[in-house]
Amino acid sequence: MDFDNIKLVDIGNTNAKILYKKQIDILSANDFDDHDEFYYICVNKKINEKLKQNKQAINLEKYINIKTSYKGLGIDRKILCSYIEDGIIVDAGSAITIDVMDEKNHLGGYILPGIANCLKIYENISSVLKVDKIDPIMIDKLPDNTTDAISKAILKSVILMIKDVSKDKKIYFCGGDGLMISSYFENAIYKQDLIFDAMKKIIKENIC
Description:
single chain; alpha/beta; Nucleotidyltransferase, domain 5; 2 domains; 5-stranded mixed beta sheet; 6 helices; globular
């Protein structure tokens, strides 16, 4: 199958990411509307119901199966876990999910607020605590200003959580903040389109 001519769509609660002809485009999930044939996964229940009426939209969810006792594992996490058979998977987007795979078995995982949402929490506490964005910084030095205090608190909580579960396993990062967070780990692999690689694997094994 020529994947360059196949449209793959990952629909989240906020955005829809589209891979087509080696190019990734990002739209608001609510603005996504396509009548050409495409393969997709979707965590957005409202949009999922709408897509059931589109005969050109092929939902990959029914083809995904992993060994896990976790209840409520989202389709986006499932497909990544089906692709990475052994290692830690960190998807750093609106939420940061951390999943542990061990010899094709999903052992469990964590969900943290994404960095942008963490920053909103601080701003909601007080306008004095507003920080627009976080840049990579040294996290071991004790902060001496409010911006660093917030930035390091958010980053360190995420990094220490990942370190606690990763041990000597490879860590696979994706998502908008994945590249930045991965820079704190020596055993890290960052791939922006990891979820599309996982979708291609499902298609090859079940549909081609």
